[in-house]
């Protein structure tokens, strides 16, 4: 069985608070906190991009787990904000750390890091890789419309990294749930090559989100995906020691928590400090849970995320076993 052998994360130094938005947008700290739970977020420096965030997340992983990259023969970077369409950001990571590994980017919206974990797990189990470095990194501040109150206040930048490989029996990944519904593509997008979607929806070169529709979608799939993942793992909600949901909106997190019947003490929350960091969201929260002692070897962990596509993903793993 495979699982997470090492973990690291990084956030940029610059902190942007809700008060900063009050200076030029028709909004307020109270309005943002009430609707999202976000109080501040981290913003990449002008010359800091997704590859830089990925590098620093991996450097943090190495500082915590010296030698963790030995034997890594695959690199997957989940991101929605790659430095370039090509070369892939994963190849830049491979080169930076001198790895003898294949490398590719994965674009699946905010659930991309869980998608990448699933692929890493499958590669290891199939014998196609010994160890896979899985990174989630985003410089979302580079693609925002800073004058759009509906989106500018929601997102932040950051990166997380994990090494996936074989763990001892009784530990590691127990289930994955992956899904997509492309009929909702028009609700959350950023243009690249085409000026419109196949249904004729015009796209602009800045992040767009239909908040109302995405909120309804998120509440629905966070509930269904988590319950399905728990069932596939042969567990019940009571068995989950820590629930780590995508950090997009505190109200969405609360709805999922209530559906699972979990107390807040068993839910990881950092959306108030980082906002929505997309693919970096889950590894950032996971790393914090380890650092604060909220996650111990043998604990069952539930991960879930949703995002553009529309997509969703959930996973259950038993922590430890390295």
TrEMBL record:
Keywords: Acyltransferase, Cytoplasm, Fatty acid biosynthesis, Fatty acid metabolism, Lipid biosynthesis, Lipid metabolism, Multifunctional enzyme, Transferase. It comes from Thermus composti. Residues 104-182 form the Beta-ketoacyl-[acyl-carrier-protein] synthase III N-terminal domain. Residues 247-251 are annotated as: ACP-binding. It is an enzyme of class 2 (transferase). Homodimer. Residues 230-319 form the Beta-ketoacyl-[acyl-carrier-protein] synthase III C-terminal domain. Its EC number is 2.3.1.180. InterPro entries: ACP_syn_III_C, ACP_syn_III_N, FabH, Thiolase-like. The keyword Lipid metabolism applies. The last Arg residue of the ACP-binding site is essential for the weak association between ACP/AcpP and FabH. Belongs to the thiolase-like superfamily. FabH family. GO terms for molecular function: beta-ketoacyl-acyl-carrier-protein synthase III activity. Pathway: Lipid metabolism; fatty acid biosynthesis. It is found in: Cytoplasm. Pfam families: ACP_syn_III, ACP_syn_III_C. The active site is at 110, 246, 276. It catalyses: malonyl-[ACP] + acetyl-CoA + H(+) = 3-oxobutanoyl-[ACP] + CO2 + CoA. Catalyzes the condensation reaction of fatty acid synthesis by the addition to an acyl acceptor of two carbons from malonyl-ACP. Catalyzes the first condensation reaction which initiates fatty acid synthesis and may therefore play a role in governing the total rate of fatty acid production. Possesses both acetoacetyl-ACP synthase and acetyl transacylase activities. Its substrate specificity determines the biosynthesis of branched-chain and/or straight-chain of fatty acids. This is Beta-ketoacyl-[acyl-carrier-protein] synthase III.
């Amino acid at each position: 069985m495979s699982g997470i052998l090492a973990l690291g994360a990084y956030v940029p130094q610059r902190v942007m608070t809700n008060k900063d938005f009050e200076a030029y947008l028709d909004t307020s700290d109270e309005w943002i906190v009430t609707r999202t739970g976000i109080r501040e977020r981290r913003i990449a420096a002008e010359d800091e991009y997704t590859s830089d965030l990925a590098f620093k997340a991996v450097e943090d992983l190495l500082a915590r787990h010296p030698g963790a990259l030995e034997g890594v023969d695959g690199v997957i970077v989940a991101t929605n904000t790659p430095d370039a369409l090509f070369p892939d950001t994963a190849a830049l990571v491979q080169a930076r750390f001198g790895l003898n590994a294949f490398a590719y980017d994965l674009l699946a919206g905010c659930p991309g890091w869980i998608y990448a974990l699933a692929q890493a797990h499958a590669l290891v189990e199939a014998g196609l890789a010994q160890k896979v470095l899985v990174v989630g990194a985003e410089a979302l501040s580079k693609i925002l419309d800073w004058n759009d109150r509906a989106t500018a206040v929601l997102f932040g930048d950051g990166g997380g990294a994990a090494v996936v490989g074989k763990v001892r029996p009784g530990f590691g990944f127990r289930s994955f749930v992956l899904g997509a519904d492309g009929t909702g593509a028009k609700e959350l997008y950023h243009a690249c090559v085409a000026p419109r979607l196949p249904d004729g929806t015009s796209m602009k070169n800045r992040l767009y989100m239909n908040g109302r529709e995405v909120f309804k979608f998120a509440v629905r799939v966070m509930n269904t995906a988590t319950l399905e993942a728990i069932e596939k793992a042969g567990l019940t909600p009571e068995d989950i020691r820590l629930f780590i949901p995508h950090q997009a909106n505190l109200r969405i997190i609360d709805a999922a928590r209530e559906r699972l019947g979990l107390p807040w003490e068993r839910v990881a929350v950092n959306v108030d400090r980082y906002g929505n960091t997309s693919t970096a969201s889950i590894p950032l929260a996971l790393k914090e849970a380890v650092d604060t002692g909220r996650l111990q070897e043998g604990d069952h962990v539930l991960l879930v995320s949703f995002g553009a596509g529309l997509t969703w993903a959930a996973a259950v793993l038993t922590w430890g076993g390295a």
